[in-house]
Specification:
Layout lengths: L3 H7 L4 H23 L8 E5 L5 E3 H15 L4 E6 L6 E2 L6 E9 L10 E9 L19 E7 L3 E6 L4 E7 L4 E6 L10 E3 L10 H12 L10 E2 L5 H11 L2 E4 L12 E2 H13 L4 E3 L16 E2 L1 E4 L1 H12 L1
Parallel strand pairs: 3-5, 11-12, 11-13
Antiparallel strand pairs: 1-2, 3-4, 5-6, 6-7, 7-8, 8-9, 9-10, 13-17, 14-16, 15-17
The protein binds 1,6-di-O-phosphono-alpha-D-fructofuranose and 1,6-di-O-phosphono-beta-D-fructofuranose (FBP).
Length: 321
């Protein structure tokens, strides 16, 4: 039984980055306690407000955001924060070495139905002489660490600092994250995919053809059957992909022409792409490697196709055709 703290030491993670990661883990553990309390914690239901993306904020969205903001602002190593629930980046400590982007509660529509939700973090290096939102405008390839904490039947944390992806499970007795998989490997091949199929008529032709061929199963060009899963929380779907392989996608669509993509680059796509790549998988928009995208603003959205290497590459072949 090796703790997160011991793992960070034994893998020679930069002690300051390790200290920040322990703070992220503490945030996850505190949110996990609130999630476990459900209605008893007073966290269910919606607030009166909307976030910058025009989405109604759930109570726990706001509570989790405030909790993380408070703890990270108190961390001298953090220069600034960017959150799904904040219109603009928030300055913390000018001398800090790190910039942290986060989705405090991914999958928030799941909270009231007692289903999977999670928190996602991305850590970038601060840049000398650059402050405010401009400092965050770095490709995901620059991330020093990425992690999510999934509040499921067990609370688990997937973490990478660029030396593979590791999985930890929160021990509720001791409130510590304990290593459960020291080298996550996504199987190269899969028979499972995840997509919100209700958007089918809005997808681009390449995605239409790819999914139609999966659904055609044994009788179709792929010559085998595929199964579908959709958790409606990227954090849950990506956790399944890391645990047993699969392809997850939220592709471009024309449902709302003003918003062709759903997932946010800085605090959803980038950290998940790093975790997936570090576990041997692939993460792309269909046309570009996610980690190579040069961001233009902190809340920008992208198409995402990620997971088992061979299957994602097959999907990308449809985009080349
Ligand atoms: P929130 O961050 O607003 O909770 O949204 C979660 C999410 O962006 C992502 O985690 C899911 O993959 C996706 O929404 C689910 O979308 P559908 O509503 O299309 O199922
Ligand atoms: P198990 O109890 O064998 O895990 O099966 C669960 C289940 O019967 C239902 O709970 C669920 O709706 C269904 O399987 C999911 O089926 P599918 O694999 O077709 O998505």
């Amino acid at each position: 039984m090796s703790s997160l703290h011991a793992q960070l030491q034994s893998r020679n993670v930069d002690p300051e980055l390790a200290s920040l990661i322990l703070t992220l883990a503490e945030c996850g553990s505190a949110i996990s306690t609130l999630v476990r309390g459900g209605a008893l914690s007073g966290i269910l239901g919606a607030t009166e407000s909307e976030n910058v993306q025009g989405e109604t904020q759930k109570k726990l969205d706001v509570i989790a955001n405030d909790l993380i903001k408070e703890r990270l602002s108190a961390q001298p190593l953090v220069q600034a924060l960017a959150s799904e629930e904040e219109d603009h980046s928030v300055d913390a400590n000018p001398a800090g070495r790190f910039l942290v982007s986060f989705d405090p509660l991914d999958g928030s529509s799941n909270i009231d139905i007692n289903s999977l939700v999670g928190t996602i973090f991305s850590v970038l290096p601060a840049q000398s002489g650059v402050s405010g939102e401009a400092a965050f405008m770095q490709p995901g390839r620059n991330q020093l660490a990425a992690c999510y904490i999934l509040y499921g039947p067990a609370t688990v944390m997937a973490l990478t600092t660029g030396q593979g992806t590791w999985m930890f499970t929160l021990d509720p007795q001791t409130d510590t994250f304990v290593l459960s998989d020291g080298q996550v490997q996504i199987p190269q091949q899969t028979g499972e995919f995840a997509i919100n199929a209700s958007n089918q008529r809005f997808w681009q032709p390449a995605m239409q053809r790819y999914i139609a061929d999966l659904i055609a199963g044994k009788e179709g060009p792929r010559g085998r059957n595929f199964n579908m899963r959709w958790i409606a929380a990227m954090v849950g779907d990506v956790h399944r992909v890391l645990s047993r392989g699969g392809l997850f996608t939220y592709p471009q669509d024309t449902k709302n022409p003003a918003k062709p993509y759903k997932l946010r680059l800085m605090y959803e796509a980038n950290p998940m792409a790093m975790l997936v790549e570090q576990a041997g998988g692939v993460a792309s928009t269909g046309y570009e490697t996610i980690l190579d995208i040069e961001p233009e603003q902190i809340h920008q959205r992208v198409a995402v196709i990620l997971g088992s290497k061979d299957e994602v590459e097959t999907c990308l072949d449809y985009h080349k055709a």
